[in-house]
Design a protein that fits this description.
heterodimer; A: 115 residues; 7-stranded mixed beta sheet; B: 116 residues; 4-stranded antiparallel beta sheet; 12 strands; 0% helix
């Protein structure tokens, strides 16, 4: 149980392109989803917290107009990187959680490369 | 202060050796949760264990065991008879009740290398 699917797993695109990443909880309803960014050999950096039906809460320093998050249902959240530039290249990981005291379950991550 | 410290950046052992990964946390909250996650080279994060602050019982799951000690604010993870497949980065994390979103506060991770 507790499977989270994240797509695509890898994206390579030109600068200026917008990229959408999907995160789905396959076998449970996620009241909360999280989006992280991970730089090489570093820990996870929380970008935003998304509660179903509410606007996402962004961490300090994360541009909400740059990283658009939509949590339209209890099983789907999307992250859109708008007008991506090379500095946005990174490993993006989503997680989903059933309830506040439950563990977060993670997708396999998306490796984004902007040329 | 809110902090999770994994002082061991990298550990390298030979297969079949036992290895302990340390995790020390800081919190002012009385209700909190501690977690361990594994991140193999492929990148996905695998949930290993969750512990709440009111349950100090140690836990064993196969070759894995966890030692939670509130007196020293530690939540250490031991792998017995390590195997090459245990090679990964292991993260310890903390969430607190005073954070309405119960966000995870992550340690820096410990890279574990098991040599054949």
């Amino acid at each position: 149980g507790a499977v989270v699917s994240q797509h695509p797993s890898r994206v390579i695109c030109k600068s200026g392109t917008s990229v959408k990443i999907e995160c789905r909880s396959l076998d449970f309803q996620a009241t909360t989803m999280f989006w992280y960014r991970q730089f090489p050999k570093q820990s996870l950096m929380l970008m935003a917290t998304s509660n179903e039906g509410s606007k996402a809460t962004y961490e300090q320093g994360v541009e909400k107009d740059k990283f658009l998050i939509n949590h339209a249902s209890l099983t789907l959240s999307t992250l859109t990187v708008t007008s991506a530039h090379p500095e946005d290249s990174s490993f993006y990981i989503c997680s989903a959680r059933l309830w506040f005291d439950q563990p977060q379950h993670f997708g396999d991550g998306t490796r984004l490369s902007i040329l | 202060a809110q902090k999770v410290t994994q002082a061991q950046t990298e550990i390298s052992v030979v297969e079949k050796e036992d290895v302990t990964l340390d995790c020390v946390y800081e919190t002012r909250d009385t209700t909190y949760y501690l977690f361990w996650y594994k991140q193999p080279p492929s990148g996905e994060l695998v949930f290993l264990i969750r512990r709440n602050s009111f349950d100090e019982q140690n836990e064993i799951s196969g070759r894995y065991s966890w030692n939670f000690q509130k007196s020293t604010s530690s939540f250490n993870f031991t792998i017995t008879a390590s195997q090459v497949v245990d090679s990964a980065v292991y993260f310890c994390a903390l969430s607190e009740a005073m954070d309405s979103n119960y966000q995870l506060i992550w340690g820096a991770g410990t890279k574990l290398i098991i040599k054949p």
